[in-house]
């Protein structure tokens, strides 16, 4: 079974450990602050002290969330690819995204409001594509550490007049570690007589090999300024996606990832979520790490209200009670109480972990000062 330290139990009852130890003595139990109590004993003590005991088993709770989902391969449906544009500073990532956004998203849809969210979906003749604004590499790393995969394809932007640079290489390493295919967009070809051959050679050193040389990587020359090659880029992305046979279940409770989050002074916590599974509906109970809530409003990249979101669609959500962490997984649940309990449980766990860490740090300091 589960065990709990005397100090942790005291913590949960919001009393000092000494008080608990004294109380336990009065019950005939002699224990030290670090002693482990089994679940039954801890429960008895807490109840004797007038507390209502709620037993949590993180694994069970997490499992029960997952089990709410129908897992049936015949329900898998094709979904649009999720694409991240990466590359060295100033090589044109934002320009490329902006060009695609401005040419592919009808302005009239926006209703005059232009919001800059970290993800958007575009419609092309051959299909939908979801783009993510380059998350900082830190966010990327944290998602990978949690085993959260968000991007299907990485478009590596290399400016033709600057060539392969440190962050180009870093992006390749991220792609390799995440096992995501890389499509190379040689950018700024309007600027100079391009010499993509040289870039191809430089990238070969990092295991990025063009298809025409027997490798796996598609190369395309573009200009984010004139728009040259961008339609081809979109087509090639869809071609790559087709080979990958990207699928997801689009029924049942949703699962997604927090792409960005911030506090709006008037509206409270706002999060951009990329839906990965199921359908998220207005009014759904949601849980992400230590935050939970209810979807009060959902909007797309142009601020239009939507009632349902299916896989690969990025949406902006209003309704979290606190700020969800970027990179964390979001679940929709059909039980508000469970969402709240799990959120509180995780908050406590986090607090304990932090305390433990602080203690360790203090110990380290002691040793350093000796
Ligand atoms: P960071 O976000 O700082 O890493 O840069 P970025 O990769 O987003 O580059 P950004 O889109 O900001 O472009 C950098 C500069 O290059 C800007 O001055 C752009 O106008 C310019 N630029 C981007 N693409 C092109 C292009 O295709 N042709 C030309 N001539 N200029 C470009
Ligand atoms: Mg940029």
UniProtKB/TrEMBL annotation:
Q: Where is this region: G-domain?
A: 81-229
Q: Name one GO molecular function term.
A: GTPase activity
The lineage's top-level taxon is Bacteria
Stretches assigned to the Tr-type G domain:
78-247
Whether DNA-binding counts among this entry's keywords is no
Q: Which residues bind GTP?
A: 87-94, 133-137, 187-190
- Give the keywords, sorted: Cytoplasm, GTP-binding, Initiation factor, Nucleotide-binding, Protein biosynthesis
The family line of this record is: Belongs to the TRAFAC class translation factor GTPase superfamily. Classic translation factor GTPase family. IF-2 subfamily.
Name recorded for this polypeptide: Translation initiation factor IF-2
């Amino acid at each position: 079974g589960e065990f709990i330290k005397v100090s942790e139990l005291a913590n949960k009852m919001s009393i000092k450990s000494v008080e608990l130890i004294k109380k336990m003595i009065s019950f005939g139990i002699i224990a030290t602050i670090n002693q482990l109590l089994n679940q039954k004993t801890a429960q008895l003590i807490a109840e004797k002290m007038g507390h209502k005991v709620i037993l949590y088993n993180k694994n069970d709770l997490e499992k029960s969330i997952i089990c709410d989902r129908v897992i049936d391969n015949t329900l898998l449906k094709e979904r649009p690819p999720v694409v991240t544009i990466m590359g060295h500073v100033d090589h044109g990532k934002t320009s490329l995204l902006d060009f695609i956004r401005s040419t592919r998203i009808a302005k009239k849809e926006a209703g005059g409001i232009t919001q800059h969210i970290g993800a958007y979906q575009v419609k092309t003749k051959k299909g939908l594509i979801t783009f993510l604004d380059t998350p900082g590499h830190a966010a990327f790393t944290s998602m990978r550490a949690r085993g959260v995969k968000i991007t299907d394809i990485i478009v590596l932007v290399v400016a033709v007049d600057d060539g392969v640079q440190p962050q180009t290489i870093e992006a390749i390493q991220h792609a390799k570690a995440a096992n995501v295919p890389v499509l190379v967009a040689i950018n700024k070809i309007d600027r100079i007589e391009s010499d993509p051959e040289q870039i191809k050679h430089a990238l070969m050193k990092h295991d990025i090999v063009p298809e025409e040389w027997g490798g796996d990587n598609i190369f395309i020359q573009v200009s984010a300024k004139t728009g040259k090659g961008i339609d081809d880029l979109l087509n090639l992305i869809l071609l790559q996606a087709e080979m990958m046979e990207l699928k997801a279940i689009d029924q049942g409770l949703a699962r997604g990832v927090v792409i960005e989050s911030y506090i709006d002074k008037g509206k409270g916590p706002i999060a951009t979520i990329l839906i990965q599974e199921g359908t998220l509906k207005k009014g759904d109970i949601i849980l992400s790490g230590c935050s939970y809530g209810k979807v009060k409003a959902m909007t797309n990249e142009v601020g239009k209200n939507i009632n349902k979101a299916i896989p690969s669609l990025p949406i902006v959500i209003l309704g979290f009670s606190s700020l969800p962490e970027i990179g964390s997984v979001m679940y929709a649940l059909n039980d508000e109480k469970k969402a709240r309990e799990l959120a509180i449980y995780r908050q406590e766990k986090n607090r304990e972990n932090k305390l433990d860490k602080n203690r360790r740090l203090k110990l380290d300091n002691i040793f350093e000062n000796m």
